[in-house]
Design goal:
Elements lengths: L2 H5 L5 H6 L1 H31 L7 H20 L4 H22 L6 H13 L4 H75 L7 E2 H12 L7 E8 L2 H8 L1 H18 L10 H4 L7 E6 L2 E7 L3 H16 L3 E3 L2 E3 L4 E7 L7 H17 L5 E5 L1
Parallel strand pairs: 1-3, 7-8
Antiparallel strand pairs: 2-4, 2-7, 3-4, 5-6
């Protein structure tokens, strides 16, 4: 195992960075808990000190309480990054432990020994920076011990401090390695769930939505009050069977893909995060496109007027006709599609009725020879 991999607890840098958001969230939650508990504890100890219990500790308790209270406010205001909050919390806890050890020359650094292990287990950072931080704090403990407690206690504190620092770093590596492994496993699970949601909602060939999901979202759209700018349309490539017969199904698949790309761009369909699009769908503004099957597509889009909708669809027809599809030396161009569009008038209660009207209009376009756009009101 190389040094870089040790730094990331046995995983690659990329895997560690993939967990960064979870690491930051974990550290922030732990810091909030530790700091709040510490504020309450130091406040109680300060009051007890005023009442006569360890009066020499009053200033240490009060200072620790105020310092951690300031950190609570910084966390609440989001004025520090989670990384700085984590190191700030570790520093305050260990400095308190150093101060607690230094006040009484005969007092072994027990608090420090406990805190150094506690912090190592609870908070996460890369291994080498964590190790460097602990060595610096151990140096601070040793210097304070020598200055305040003399050579004999310094030797004892330094030995215990070094022993517990090594134990803390060993525990840090073991615990954090398992924690990061659990983060990675959870990320893999979430990614699999997202992929399943994409497969359940989107067509593999065209990349646009499946019919069932589209109908669910369309139902939400028509339930909006006064959906006066909502247009629902069917699109069908003219003479598509001849494309498959003359050029093969692979060419037909490319034509379907090219049409879906053309419609998705022209209708300003923005699926953003496909895994969560259905949950975050905004009926009043989002446009959607779905493949019904074969070369048939259905869309729902928002347009300011019937004239603008017709202009948009005729522009898409012209753009699609300019597409050139090449496969195995064969070239396909001048494709046309037919389109029937219904301007929704808030007069139908379910999508099946609306789809039926659009289908009837499409049948009329096809009967007239195709290659046209017809628009009617619901």
């Amino acid at each position: 195992m190389n040094l870089d991999k040790i730094n990331y607890y046995g995983v690659s840098r990329a895997d560690y960075q993939a967990c960064q958001e979870q690491i930051d969230h974990h550290n922030l939650q732990i810091c909030r808990f530790l700091v709040k508990i510490f504020v309450v504890a130091m406040g109680i100890f300060a009051l007890l000190s005023l009442a006569g219990l360890h009066p020499t500790h009053f200033l240490m308790y009060l200072t620790s309480c105020l310092a951690n209270l300031a950190l609570v406010l910084l966390i609440r205001k989001n004025w520090l990054s989670s990384h700085l909050i984590a190191y700030g919390t570790m520093t305050l806890l260990l400095l308190f432990a150093v101060a607690d050890s230094s006040i009484d020359p005969k007092h072994v650094a027990t608090t420090y020994l406990v805190f150094v292990v506690l912090v190592a287990v609870l908070l996460t950072d890369k291994f080498w920076p964590t190790g460097a931080f602990y060595l610096v704090m151990l140096l601070v403990l040793s210097l304070c011990s020598y200055y305040f407690k003399g050579p004999i206690m310094w030797e004892l504190d330094s030995f215990n401090g070094l022993t517990f620092t090594l134990v803390a770093l060993a525990l840090n590596y073991i615990v954090q390695r398992e924690r990061i492994a659990s983060f990675l496993l959870f990320n893999k699970y979430k990614e699999n769930q997202r992929e399943l949601r994409v497969q359940a909602n989107f067509d593999h060939l065209s990349g646009v939505m499946l019919r069932s999901t589209f109908m669910d979202l369309l139902q939400k759209a028509i339930e909006q009050p006064e959906s006066t700018d909502l247009f629902i349309g069917l699109v069908d490539i003219d003479h598509f069977k001849q494309v498959n017969d003359n050029y093969g199904h692979r060419m037909g698949d490319l034509a379907i893909q090219r049409l879906s790309q053309c419609l998705e761009k022209g209708l300003e369909v923005d699926y953003r995060d496909r895994a969560d699009f259905a949950e975050k769908f905004a009926p009043a503004k989002d446009n959607v496109l779905a493949r019904l099957g074969g070369d048939e597509f259905v869309f729902a889009c928002h347009c300011p007027s019937e004239a603008s909708c017709l202009e948009k669809m005729r522009g898409l027809q012209a753009a699609f006709a300019k597409e050139e599809i090449t496969l195995d030396g064969q070239q396909l161009s001048q494709l046309r599609f037919s389109c029937g569009v219904i301007h929704y008038q808030n007069n139908l209660s379910n999508v099946d009725q609306l789809y039926q009207k659009a289908d009837q209009l499409m049948y009329k376009v096809k009967k007239q020879g195709g290659g046209n756009v017809l628009l009617a009101r619901s």
